[in-house]
Amino acid sequence: MLTIGGLASCAGVTVRAVRHYHAKGLLPEPERDHSGYRRYDASAVVELIKIRTLAEAGVPLARVAELLRADEEEFAAAIADIDKRLRAEIRQRQRQRMQIARLASGDHMALPPEVVEYLDQLRTLGVDERIVQAERDGWIMLATHSPERVPEWMARKREQIADRRLIDFYRTLGHAMDQTADDTRLVELADKLAAYITQLADEQGEDYVDDTDIEPPLVKLMDTLAFDTLPPARRLIELMKKRGWTGWTKLQRVEPTPMPPD
Question: What does DSSP assign to residue 260?
């Protein structure tokens, strides 16, 4: 006959675990002997090993008692069901690990490889990191909203950044990031950018300038994100409106706002 400590040792568990299984009603408690100790026989060891094995396999304790009482057919069906649940949990954990890995890799989080490549190219071309980060956050929303259109948009972006004028616009905006809203470089940038967009629209059509076809609520959200991240962008759009264009995420031609005389 075994004490509770001997039982725990034989079954490879702790005394605390034995008492826990007693409390859960999984393992019957024997009567105390004349010395006041509980004594366990070999059948208790076998039963405790079964409980430990099921628990380590991931079977909830609430089902352990049911399985211990089940016949062979019921036991096999229950184990198959538990195995199915565990495999689903493993797949979920694998997806979570992939997401964590993407988080650890910076721009790769929630972004397709072609967008990551584009952002890296902006950095290589000398675009201010704050502008790159704003672009990244916008692309996260776009890629989530319309993943099937990312290749199409990326093809257009690659065309655009091949034009040195557009990169110069990015750089000018970057230089203005730490300046006041009345920085003269923003006025010069608005002039050049409006002329560039107008030329594209006249040559390629306005659909070429912007064909993102994004719902207005998302456009507003992305604009707000850009303006919060890049304060000069809001002022730039105000200046652009005076020159016949408005919008950050979605460019639109408008009637130019009359500019006050010098």
Answer: P
Output the domain CATH number for residue 94: 1.10.1660.10
Take residue 241 and report the two structure tokens written for it: 């409106």
Q: Are 232 and 183 in contact (CB under 8 A)?
A: yes
Domain that residue 34 falls in: 4-102
d(CA 257, CA 190): 13
Q: How far apart are CA 127 and CA 112, in angstroms?
A: 20
If asked whether residues 35 and 58 sit together in one domain, one would say yes
Divide the 262 residues of the chain into consecutive groups of 10 and give the mean pLDDT of each group.
90 92 90 85 91 86 85 85 86 78 60 89 91 88 87 87 85 78 80 86 74 78 86 87 87 75 48
User: Looking at the structure, do residues 63 and 123 belong to the same domain, yes or no?
Assistant: no
Question: pTM for this one?
Answer: 0.54
For the chain, where are the E strands, in sequence order?
245-246, 252-253
| CA gap 153, 155 in Å, rounded | 5
**Number of helices followed by number of strands (H, E) in the chain:** 13, 2
Q: Is 258 within the bounds of a domain? A: no
